[in-house]
UniProtKB/TrEMBL annotation, chain A:
Domain F-box stretches: 6-53
PROSITE patterns given in the database record: FBOX
Protein name: F-box domain-containing protein
InterPro entries, per database record: F-box_dom, F-box_Sdz-33, Zygotic_Embryogenesis-Asso
One Pfam entry name: FBA_2
Signal peptide boundaries: none
Domain of life of the source: Eukaryota
UniProtKB/TrEMBL annotation, chain B:
UniProt similarity note: Belongs to the SKP1 family.
Role this protein plays: Probable essential component of SCF (SKP1-CUL1-F-box protein) E3 ubiquitin-protein ligase complexes, which mediate the ubiquitination and subsequent proteasomal degradation of target proteins. Regulates cell proliferation during embryonic and larval development.
Boundaries of every SKP1 component POZ domain copy: 26-88
InterPro entries given in the database record: SKP1, SKP1-like, SKP1-like_dim_sf, SKP1/BTB/POZ_sf, Skp1_comp_dimer, Skp1_comp_POZ
Protein name in UniProt: Skp1-related protein
Annotated pathway: Protein modification; protein ubiquitination
Segments forming domain SKP1 component dimerisation: 134-178
A Pfam match: Skp1_POZ
Species for this entry: Caenorhabditis brenneri
Biased composition regions of type Basic and acidic residues, renumbered to the chain: 169-194
Taxonomic superkingdom: Eukaryota
Record region (Disordered): 166-201
Length: 321, 201
C-alpha cells in the first residue's frame, strides 16, 4: 500500500497558497475549486481570464470554456436519467471529465456545474447554447432549468420536429439565433420564430432552401444572414421596394450567401428602383446606393454567391462627419 | 535561469570587490549560527534591507552578536542559506504577486527540497518571511506538483483540505475563542426562544 504524501496547503501564508494554486494546471485548479467553498473562493481570487462559457447539447452534454487561445471541453457522461413521460430527466451526472481528466462533486446537478464554472471563471452568463442531433431525448423543462439563460442560441435538428419547435419556444426570447430550416417540416421556419426581435438572425441551410417574400417581410432582426438560402430575384426586388417604403425598419444588415456561386441578375433585382452611385467595388463586387423614403441610405452589393444590403444608420453618418 | 518570462532586477556583481567578500552571521531560534555571504543575502529582500539598515563593517560582524532570526529553526535556515549561496548573483524576480508561466525546478533545488513535507512547509514559511521570491517560486511549484493528476477527493487528502462543515466549525470555534460571551448569548437566546419569548432584549 502506498502512503499518500500530505501537505497542509491552507496553513501556508495566503500569498503562498495563491502562489501554489497559480502554479497548478487548469484541470487541478478546477478540481481544487470543487473541494470546498473556501477553495472555490481561492480559485476565484486568481482572476483567471476566459472569453466565454458555452453549452453544447446533443446525445451528450458539454460545457465549453473558451480561453484566449484554446477551448476546454467539459463532458458530462453516464448521466443518471430516468424515463419519465418518455423523456430522459437530467439529473446529477454520474461523472464529469474536463479534456479526459475526471472532475467530481457529489450531488451537483447540471445547473450547479454550470454555475460553478461561471463563478470560478467570473463569467456570469452562458454565451451560447447549441442544440444538435440527439437533444430530443432530454426533457425540455430540464434543459431550460439547467442551462436555459443565454443570449445566443445555435439550433440544429435535434431529431424531432415537434421537439425543435417546443425547445425554441421554451428558450426564447434570445438576442441571437442561428437556425437551420431543416429543423422544420418542409424546411419552412415558422413565422413565430422568424418574427422575433433578434439582434442577429442567421439562417444556415444544409441544402439550398427557398424562402419567400412573406418570410423576408416578417423578419424583424437587426442583422439577417442566410447561407445557402435562395430567394427569387422578383421577391428580392419587391423586398427592396417595400424596405424603401418602410418595411423591415429594424434591419441594419441583410446578406444572402450561397455556396454554389449563384449570381443574381442585377437588372431584375433592381428593376424599378431608383439607383445612385452605382460602382464596382472590386473585381467581383458591384454596389448601388438606394434611399428609403425617410432618407436612410443603404448599399446593395452584388457578388458571386449572393447579395448584401448594408444600411447606413444615421448614428454612423453622424460619427463619420 | 530557471524561470522564464519573469521581470528581473539585475544584481550588480561588479560593485562587490572580490578581495573583500563580506559575510554576515545569523542565528536561528535554536541557536545555530550561520555565516552567509553578502551576495547570497541579496536573494532575501528582508535580510538585504536588514543588513543595509544595520550598516555593519567586517569588524562589526565579528565583534557583535550574530543577527537573530527568531522565528526560523536551524534546520530550515540551513536550507535557506544553502539555496541563497547556490543562487547568489542570479537575477532576482520582482515580486509583483504574479507567478511566472513556466517554473522549472533546477536539479540543485530539487535535491535541496528532497525533504519531508513538514520541513518543506517550514521552508516556504521561512522563504515567505525572508521574502526570497525565487525560492518561493520553486518551493510552491513543488507543492503544486503534488496536485498532478489528482481528483478533488485525492486533493482533499493530499492537501489536508477541510470540508465546508469543518471550515464552518473552525470559524465558529475561532469566534467563540475571541468572544467567550458569544456562546452564552447564543445559549440564552435559544433558551428564550424555547420559552416562547418574542424579544431578546
Amino acid at each position: 500500500m502506498t502512503t499518500v504524501s500530505k501537505f497542509p496547503l491552507l496553513q501556508l501564508p495566503q500569498k503562498e497558497i495563491l502562489r501554489t494554486i497559480q502554479s497548478i494546471d487548469i484541470y487541478q485548479k478546477m478540481s481544487f475549486s470543487l473541494t470546498s467553498k473556501r477553495c472555490k473562493r481561492l480559485v476565484q481570487s486568481l482572476q483567471i481570464k476566459i472569453k466565454c462559457i458555452s453549452v453544447i447539447i446533443s446525445s451528450r452534454i458539454y460545457i465549453t470554456v473558451s480561453f484566449s487561445d484554446w477551448t476546454l471541453y467539459i463532458r458530462f457522461e453516464n448521466c443518471i436519467m430516468q424515463r419519465e413521460a418518455r423523456k430522459k430527466r437530467l439529473r446529477a451526472p454520474q461523472w464529469v471529465e474536463a479534456d479526459s481528466r475526471r472532475l467530481e462533486r457529489i450531488g451537483f446537478e447540471y445547473s450547479d456545474w454550470l454555475k460553478h464554472f461561471q463563478d470560478i471563471f467570473h463569467c456570469p452568463s452562458t454565451a451560447t447554447i447549441s442544440f444538435f442531433q440527439g437533444t430530443c431525448v432530454y426533457d425540455i423543462d430540464d434543459i431550460k432549468e439547467g442551462f436555459g439563460a443565454t443570449k445566443t442560441l445555435y439550433a440544429r435538428h435535434t431529431g424531432c420536429y415537434a421537439y425543435n419547435l417546443a425547445l425554441l419556444q421554451k428558450i426564447l426570447p434570445i438576442e441571437n439565433l442561428t437556425i437551420n430550416p431543416n429543423m422544420f417540416q418542409d424546411s419552412k421556419i415558422p413565422f413565430k420564430i422568424l418574427q422575433q426581435n433578434y439582434t442577429t438572425l442567421d439562417i444556415i441551410s444544409d441544402s439550398t432552401t427557398e424562402m419567400t417574400l412573406n418570410e423576408l417581410l416578417v423578419m424583424n432582426s437587426k442583422t439577417i444572414t442566410m447561407t445557402d438560402v435562395r430567394v427569387s430575384a422578383q421577391d428580392l426586388n419587391k423586398f427592396i421596394k417595400l424596405w424603401i417604403q418602410g418595411s423591415n425598419s429594424r434591419m441594419e444588415y441583410f446578406l444572402i450567401h450561397t455556396l454554389n456561386h449563384f449570381e443574381y441578375d442585377r437588372t431584375m433585382v433592381m428593376k424599378g428602383i431608383k439607383k445612385s452611385n452605382e460602382r464596382r467595388e472590386d473585381m467581383d463586387v458591384h454596389s448601388i446606393d438606394i434611399y428609403r423614403m425617410d432618407g436612410t441610405r443603404a448599399t446593395v452589393s452584388f457578388f458571386y454567391g449572393g447579395i448584401e444590403i448594408s444600411i447606413v444608420l444615421i448614428t454612423m453618418l453622424q460619427n463619420s462627419n | 535561469m530557471s524561470v522564464e518570462n519573469a521581470p528581473v532586477v539585475d544584481v550588480d556583481e561588479a560593485a562587490i570587490p572580490v578581495e573583500k567578500k563580506m559575510y554576515y552571521r545569523f542565528e536561528s531560534n535554536d541557536k545555530k549560527e550561520f555565516r552567509v555571504s553578502e551576495l547570497a543575502i541579496q536573494q532575501s529582500e528582508t535580510l538585504n534591507r536588514l543588513v543595509e539598515a544595520m550598516g555593519y563593517t567586517s569588524e562589526d560582524v565579528e565583534n557583535k552578536p550574530a543577527i537573530a532570526i527568531e522565528n526560523i529553526d536551524g534546520k530550515t535556515l540551513k536550507l535557506v542559506f544553502q539555496w541563497c549561496e547556490h543562487h547568489k548573483g542570479e537575477a532576482i524576480p520582482v515580486d509583483d504577486g504574479s507567478v511566472p508561466k513556466i517554473v522549472e525546478i533546477p536539479e540543485f533545488d530539487a535535491k535541496l527540497m528532497d525533504i519531508d513535507n513538514g520541513l518543506l512547509f517550514k521552508l516556504i514559511w521561512a522563504a515567505d518571511y525572508l521574502n526570497i521570491v525565487q525560492l518561493l517560486n520553486v518551493s510552491c511549484k513543488k507543492v503544486a506538483n503534488m496536485a498532478q493528476g489528482k481528483t478533488p477527493a485525492q486533493l482533499r487528502r493530499v492537501y489536508l483540505l477541510p470540508s465546508d462543515e469543518e471550515d464552518e466549525a473552525a470559524k465558529r470555534a475561532a469566534q467563540e475563542a475571541q468572544d467567550p460571551r458569544a456562546r452564552e448569548v447564543e445559549e440564552e437566546f435559544e433558551e428564550r426562544k424555547r420559552q416562547g419569548g418574542n424579544s431578546f432584549f
